[in-house]
Design brief:
Length: about 150
């Protein structure tokens, strides 16, 4: 009997868009802002490993420029986002906001120089292989401005 192959992929571990956000995220953002640790007027951040966008609305509340970064598979596959079947790319393309929101796959991010204030990577490092983790840290560092935070 032939064995069925199962693809194990970190994208499948992403929390649903309606899942409760990480309870420390907003506390960390408020700390950074209240202590003036970021001195930009136009705050630019990336959510590296944005998954199914469970932290997206918190980021919208605080930041002017948001880059959503994940694998092309995660960004382009049909998933349920905030009660609607869509892709991350389609969902963001249809959002009405004055904020700048851009979707990048991990390879586009790795070849960018975005001069970001903060790169967030929430509950991601524990589900990706070591080589991916190393690439994420390296590309995050290269996309941060001097004094930026990861």
């Amino acid at each position: 009997m032939a064995q069925k192959k199962i693809k194990i992929s970190p994208e499948y571990s992403a929390q649903p868009s309606v899942a409760k956000p990480n309870s420390l995220l907003e506390i960390a953002i408020q700390y950074i802002l209240n202590k003036n640790l970021v001195r930009s007027k136009l705050l630019k951040i990336a959510d590296y490993g944005c998954g199914r966008l469970r932290h997206f609305h918190i980021f919208l509340k605080y930041f002017d420029v948001i880059y959503l970064v994940d694998t092309e598979f995660q960004l382009s596959r049909l998933i349920k986002l905030f009660g609607k079947k869509t892709t991350i790319k389609q969902y963001i393309a249809n959002i009405k906001t004055s904020k700048k929101i851009e979707v990048l796959n991990n390879y586009e991010f790795e070849s960018s120089k975005l001069n970001l204030d903060i790169v967030f990577s929430i509950a991601v490092f524990d589900v990706v292989p070591p080589k991916t983790r190393t690439n994420m840290i390296k590309s995050s560092y290269e996309n941060l401005k001097k004094g930026g935070f990861l």
